[in-house]
Structure formats: structure tokens, C-alpha cells
Design a protein that fits this description.
The protein has 139 residues and is of the alpha/beta class. 39% of the residues lie in helices and 27% in strands. It is built from four helices and eight strands, in the order βαββββαβαββα.
Length: 139
């Protein structure tokens, strides 16, 4: 089972969240595929997808935005959204809305957001998201 985590980050904060999600995936016995947005090519055989971006000018960062616009229909794929922000934090909501529009099933009601560098409790939440995604993959 593979969970794909695609992230874009300018100062490493959203990247730290992505790594924590991957740790959760691994701890639950699946493979976490961490991909920086600029390296992404296709979803492949991933059983779940998580997308993360920090917020810039109220928007998702450009590479992840492009990926979002090129994703196929995600009928029923378990999914999640996350990202660091400074003051308003729109990007994770924009990601969650797009995933829903594509037919993915968000495993959490709300995306995970970290103000500035993710705290230990946010990183723990990220690990939990990884575990929940693997549980959904197994069903
Ligand atoms: C040019 C610029 C624009 C930004 N615009 C926003 C914004 O509109 N809303 C917000 O919440 N944070 C904004 N931020 C803050 C970043 O989202 C924040 O620093 C975040 O922690 C960066 O995370 P990253 O290291 O994962 O990129 C902006 C930062 C920069 C440098």
C-alpha cells in the first residue's frame, strides 16, 4: 500500500508536516511516497493522496496549483490537505475544496494547518493523518 504525499514549501515548514505524515504512514505499515511538487509526475498506484502547500498571497503555491489543475478524477480516493501559513491560511482549504471537487474522500473534516513552524502537537496530528489514510486504504 502506498500513500502519496505531494508538498510545496518555501522555508521547510510544510515540508516538515509532509515528513510527519509520511512517518505516520510508515508506522501504520504502508509506504509513504514523499514528493516535492516540482518532481511530481503521476499518481501511479497510490491508494491515498495528501497535498500540502503553504499560503502565499492567499493562494496555493504555483507548482502544487498546477498539479491540482492536472489531476484526474479521484473517485473515492482517500485524501487529505495540509500546510503552514502566516496569518490567513487559505491554501489548505483551497486544496481540500479541489480534492472534494475531484471526487476524493477527505479523511478529516478540516485540513491540518500550522501557523509558522509546526508545533509538536501539529506534527502529531500529521502523523495521525498518515495512520488514518492507511486505515482507509485497507478498507
Ligand atoms: C510573499 C509571501 C506571501 C505570503 N502570503 C501569505 C498569505 O496570504 N496568507 C498567509 O497566511 N501567509 C502568507 N505568507 C506566510 C507563509 O505562508 C508562512 O511563512 C509559511 O509558514 C511558509 O511555510 P513554508 O515554509 O512551508 O513555505 C506569505 C509569505 C510570503 C513570503
Amino acid at each position: 500500500m502506498k500513500v502519496m504525499i505531494v508538498w510545496e514549501s518555501t522555508r521547510g515548514r510544510t515540508k516538515a508536516m509532509a515528513e510527519a505524515i509520511s512517518e505516520g504512514v510508515t508506522s501504520a505499515g504502508a509506504e509513504g511516497i514523499l514528493i516535492e511538487a516540482k518532481e511530481f509526475s503521476e499518481l501511479g498506484d497510490a491508494c491515498a493522496l495528501v497535498l500540502g502547500s503553504s499560503t502565499r498571497m492567499k493562494r496555493v503555491l504555483p507548482m502544487l496549483k498546477r498539479i491540482m489543475s492536472e489531476l484526474p478524477v479521484l473517485n473515492g480516493l482517500p485524501a487529505g490537505a495540509f500546510g503552514s501559513y502566516g496569518w490567513s491560511g487559505e491554501a489548505p482549504d483551497e486544496i481540500a475544496a479541489k480534492l472534494t471537487e475531484l471526487g476524493a474522500i477527505l479523511v478529516d473534516q478540516k485540513p491540518i494547518k500550522a501557523k509558522d513552524y509546526p508545533s509538536d502537537s501539529i506534527l502529531e496530528e500529521c502523523r495521525g493523518l498518515g495512520v488514518r489514510l492507511v486505515e482507509k486504504c485497507s478498507k
